[in-house]
């Protein structure tokens, strides 16, 4: 799915002096949105269909898809949202539009590469894309978005079943459930996806999840945390999907082990291979740069992931899930082989 922005603002992202908090200033962005709404009644009407964050979730209704076509035959929005009635335009509700922007604007996934000087200031963008704004959050997402110019491209990040709701993450989901709860509350909702329900309510692993979260906060031997978690999942006969959920939640612990030669030597094969864990996490959260990087790095040890051709196919699949059709399949294969040649001196 591709959608063009109503408006885009470019801002400045800069560290402040009190502990590295971020401050963002979006120059003229709100004015651009209001200007677009004033010039085009159809745009104003579509903006008014978006949530202000004050409604009950059950009261929100997604408009007919025909309204998002470039030239709809008839624009008849109901329930007071019709901005075009008998050729006249209603007074623009600026207060409502400001509330809509507060909960529906999307920032670009990554800041622009250009760094202004050496002070850590970078360009980054914010925009209002109406159709993608109707996509809900999930900690078990099946889609990602990529920004190209003023267009947002939403693509599948894993296999999507017929009738399954399309979702993408609003925040980092490679963290424990308690952190995800805090993030979702900051957005004004409580995530009730299957992953959050499992990690919050599963009786057999709930105590282990709480203990692992405490260990993660307090530091210590991340290898011990990973080994204990893997052992608990094995003893409880957790299904592969639930293993994937927990590995995604404690990815920082797994990553700390793989980053440390000392921990790898200490715990040995009691810790599953990086490629195997990366593949598992991809099943939980779909394509992700961190997961793809781990799969590439872990590909030198194909233990548990099949032969080299099978590993290559898995890397390509995760790469396509991460970047969509922007990256061609043959380009992903070339990247994989170059990575192996450069880092591992392996010729395929």
Summarize the structure.
Helices cover 44% and strands 13% of the residues. The protein has 348 residues and is of the alpha+beta class.
Strands, count: 10
N/C terminus separation: 36 Å
Can you write the helix and strand succession as a string?
A: EEEHHEEHEEEEEHHHHHHHHHHH
User: Helical residue percent?
Assistant: 40-55%
Give the overall pLDDT as a whole number.
75
Domain SET: 63-171
Protein name: SET domain-containing protein
InterPro entries: Gramillin-biosynth_MTr (IPR053209), SET_dom (IPR001214), SET_dom_sf (IPR046341)
Organism: Panicum hallii
List the helices and strands and how they pair.
Elements: E1 2-4, E2 7-15, E3 22-26, H1 29-39, H2 41-48, E4 84-85, E5 88-89, H3 94-104, E6 106-107, E7 115-116, E8 121-128, E9 143-148, E10 151-156, H4 177-186, H5 194-201, H6 206-218, H7 222-235, H8 240-249, H9 251-258, H10 261-267, H11 274-285, H12 289-298, H13 308-323, H14 329-344
Antiparallel strand pairs: 1-10, 2-3, 2-8, 4-5, 6-8, 7-8, 9-10
């Amino acid at each position: 799915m591709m959608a063009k922005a109503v408006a885009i603002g470019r801002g400045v992202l800069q560290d402040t002096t009190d502990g590295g908090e971020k401050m963002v200033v979006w120059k003229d962005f709100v004015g651009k949105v209001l200007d677009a709404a004033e010039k085009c009644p159809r745009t104003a009407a579509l903006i008014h269909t978006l949530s202000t964050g004050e409604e009950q979730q059950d009261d929100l209704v997604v408009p007919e898809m025909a309204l998002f076509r470039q030239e709809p035959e008839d624009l008849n929005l109901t329930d007071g949202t019709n901005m075009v009635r008998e050729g006249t335009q209603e007074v623009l509700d600026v207060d409502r539009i400001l509330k809509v922007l507060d909960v529906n604007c999307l920032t670009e996934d990554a800041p622009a590469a250009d760094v202004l000087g050496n002070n850590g200031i970078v360009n980054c963008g914010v925009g209002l894309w109406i159709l993608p704004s109707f996509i809900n959050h999930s900690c078990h997402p099946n889609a990602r978005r990529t920004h190209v110019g003023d267009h947002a491209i939403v693509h599948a990040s894993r296999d999507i079943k017929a009738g399954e709701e399309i979702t993408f993450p609003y925040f980092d989901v490679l963290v424990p459930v308690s952190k995800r709860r805090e993030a979702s509350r900051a957005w004004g909702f409580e995530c009730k996806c299957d992953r959050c329900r499992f990690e919050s309510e599963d009786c057999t692993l709930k105590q282990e999840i709480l203990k692992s979260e405490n260990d993660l906060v307090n530091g210590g031997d991340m290898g011990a945390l990973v080994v204990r978690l893997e052992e608990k999942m094995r003893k409880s006969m957790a299904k592969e999907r639930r293993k994937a959920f927990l590995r995604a939640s404690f990815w920082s612990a797994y990553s700390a082990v793989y980053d440390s030669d000392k921990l790898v030597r200490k715990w040995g094969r009691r810790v599953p291979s990086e490629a195997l864990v990366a593949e598992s996490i991809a099943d939980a959260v779909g394509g992700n740069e961190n997961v793809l990087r781990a799969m590439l790095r872990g590909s030198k040890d194909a233990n548990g992931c099949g032969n080299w051709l099978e590993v290559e196919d898995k890397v390509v699949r995760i790469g396509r899930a991460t970047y969509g059709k922007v990256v061609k399949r043959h380009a992903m294969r070339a990247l994989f082989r170059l990575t192996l040649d450069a880092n591992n001196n392996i010729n395929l």
